[in-house]
Design goal:
The protein is globular, with a radius of gyration of 21 Å. Helix 2 (88-101) links the parallel strand 4 and strand 5. Helix 12 packs antiparallel against helix 16 (388-396). It has helices at residues 50-68, 88-101, 118-121, 124-130, 144-149, 156-169, 186-199, 216-222, 231-247, 266-272, 303-313, 325-336, 345-352, 358-366, 382-385, 388-396, and strands at 21-27, 29-30, 42-43, 75-80, 109-114, 134-140, 172-179, 203-208, 252-254, 257-259, 276-280, 285-290, 293-299, 317-322, 343-344, 370-373, 377-380. The strands form four sheets. It has a nine-stranded mixed β-sheet, sandwiched between helices. By secondary structure, it is of the alpha/beta class.
Length: 397
């Protein structure tokens, strides 16, 4: 195995001037489908032909490289699905392929999502040798009752073992929790979140349980067999989340993401700051600047369909849309207002060709939903984060 020389350096997450250029690689396979998940993930009961998929990833990279030209990468993210089902040799081949197509400086952030089953955790040293320097664990809960409810294959003992192993092997580690679970009280969440902070190194992703159409949970919820906290109770849980993480030195830098200062996810900041990123693999999305235009890309979602397309055409893209400036401005606003740092108003104005409606802006300021940071940036207040979609819709009009 030939490791790419990636030794992580301190995060550059505080540099607002450069949104970065990221590579996203989607591994679409899971050992089981969670009942809340609407991601592009697929269960296969026969072994996946990983060498064949590696060759397809490399082919699609070559096509994307022709679109982007020579660029310097600031982060790589392997998501899914369950990327930790990949053999370390597969990860190694993908990372070395990326390094052949673009400039990859030493020290950039390279993240892999992983599930904390003992079988996958044993591969961590191989992933580290391949170049992965940050792991994001899908823990989701710290009690066995709720892990079973969420359809997870691990228990708390597995999760804690994986967390300890990740802390020992990787320079940086994050893990996810899902809250606003049925019958969850603020007191229970307070205890669980404090426990999570004690295990975390520098980053946590904390998501409210949402009922997505097309999932098993959606059918149960529609039939009245699954009851989740209402809007008021969810808001209370959200506010408690902000208070606890702030107090514990891991404040929110985005709606659902918390980090010690300087440890923000560099790759996710590229999304939210509306930088360019290449999407490679089944169902991957991208935003690329090419030939003076910004394009949105999307690939075939079904793994075998994507594989056939790549082998025949050199890529699995099924959609390439040139984004007009107004559409870019809307996306910039939608993504940027998720961040505590807010949106660069000059950039938004240059894309939209107009100023914000002063009456709408003042209305939202007067009601405590947004605020100016000097003359250059606009952000949501904590109250505005609770109704983020409504704030974005109001400002975009």
């Amino acid at each position: 195995m030939t490791a790419v020389p990636f030794d992580i350096r301190p995060s550059t997450g505080t540099d607002l001037s450069d949104p970065g250029f990221g590579i996203y690689v989607h591994w679409p396979f899971c050992a089981a489908k969670c009942p809340y998940c609407d991601f592009n993930s697929h269960v296969r009961h026969q072994p996946v032909d990983q060498p064949r998929f590696v060759q397809a990833f490399l082919k699609e990279m070559a096509t994307m490289r022709r679109l982007t030209g020579s660029r310097t990468i600031t982060s790589i993210f392997m998501g899914g699905g369950t990327p930790s089902l990949m053999a370390p040799e597969t990860v190694d081949a993908i990372l070395n392929g990326i390094a052949r197509h673009w400039h990859v400086p030493d020290g950039i952030e390279i993240t892999m999502e992983a599930n904390p089953s003992s079988v996958e955790a044993e591969r961590f040293r191989g992933y580290r040798a391949a170049g992965v320097n940050r792991v994001s664990l899908g823990v989701q809960a710290l009690n066995d009752r709720d892990l079973k409810f969420l359809g997870r294959l691990h228990d708390v003992a597995d999760a804690l073992k994986a967390i300890r192993l990740a802390r020992d092997i990787f320079p940086r580690m994050s893990f996810d929790l899902i809250y606003a679970r049925p019958n969850q009280t603020v007191e229970e969440w307070d205890r669980e979140l404090k426990e999570a902070v004690s295990y975390a190194v520098d980053h946590l992703s904390l998501y409210q349980l949402t009922i997505e159409e097309g999932t098993p949970f959606y059918g149960l919820h529609k039939a009245g067999k699954l009851v989740v906290p209402d809007g008021e109770q969810s808001a209370v849980l959200y506010e408690a989340t902000q208070e606890i993480t702030e107090r514990e030195g891991m404040p929110a830098y985005e709606v659902s993401n918390h980090a010690r200062p300087g440890s923000e996810s560099r790759h996710n900041l590229t999304y939210w700051r509306y930088g360019d990123y290449v999407g490679i693999g089944p169902g991957a999305h991208g935003r690329l600047t090419t030939g003076g235009a910004k394009i949105a890309t999307a690939t075939e979602r079904k793994p075998e369909g994507w594989l056939s397309l790549v082998e025949a055409e050199g890529h699995g893209m099924v959609d390439q849309e040139v984004l007009e400036y107004e559409a870019q401005a809307d996306e910039l606003l939608l993504m940027g207002l998720r961040l505590k740092e807010g949106v660069d108003l000059a950039r938004w104005q240059s894309l939209s060709g107009r100023d914000l409606d002063p009456d709408r802006e003042q209305f939202l300021i007067d009601h405590g939903f947004i605020e100016r940071l000097g003359n250059s940036r606009l952000r949501c207040t904590p109250a505005g984060m609770l109704i983020l979609d409504a704030v974005v819709a109001d400002l975009a009009c």
